Description:
By secondary structure, the protein is α/β, with parallel strands linked by helices. It has nine helices and ten strands. It has helices spanning 29-42, 61-67, 72-88, 100-109, 122-132, 155-166, 182-190, 204-211, 220-228; strands spanning 4-7, 10-13, 16-19, 26-27, 95-96, 113-121, 140-144, 175-179, 194-198, 215-217.
Amino acid sequence: xxxxxxxxxEEKMERLIVFDFDGTLxxxxxxxxxxxxxxxxxxGWQHREAEELGFFVGxxxxxxxxxxGMNESECAQAVRxxxxxxxxxxxxxxxxxxxxxxxLRSLKERKWRIGMATSKPEKFAREIADDCGFLRYFDCVSxxxxxxxxGTISKAGLIQRVLDRTGFSGRRDAACxxxxxxxxxxxxRAEKLLAVGAAYxxxxxxxxxxxxxxxxxxxxEEMAEALLTNRVL
Length: 233
């Protein structure tokens, strides 16, 4: 793979932008929180309004259910119930953040590589991205499998897959990770990537800065402008 490409008559170093999915490219919170609510209700736990369950957006599901006080077997049951609703209804309860489709298309026109590293099942991430119309822009989608990986692979591990599959493992200075939660920032730092925080998502500026984000943007438009004007890489 060539490390440099010509854009507008100028030679530019090829870059890799790795995006988180939930809370960074799409606002999938409604489907996630309602599915978590469904799982809790089915198990007879104290009813919680969906608005109280925003902490489910981003981390592995078993970690969030454990935060509710569940043991290992209860977490496994809750994850199964969550997916029961999410696969049939929840995955369609989302909105795309403003300008994301245009951003991905513009990055692709520059011949940059685009990856996704998400803690949600890769199957669901691909289905939602395809429904949005921008799956075609991604060179690599790295998510967990529906069997055996829940809670066993870190965000750093998911990012490493993208680096390996796109040929950027040895060129981390030409890559960055963009995400809205501390897990994205910590994963980026573990993989020695520039860590870009999306404060418009579910973590907020304070969480991202505490996690060590190199850059933080408050709106999708600010993030897109920074990427497209080479103020990030």
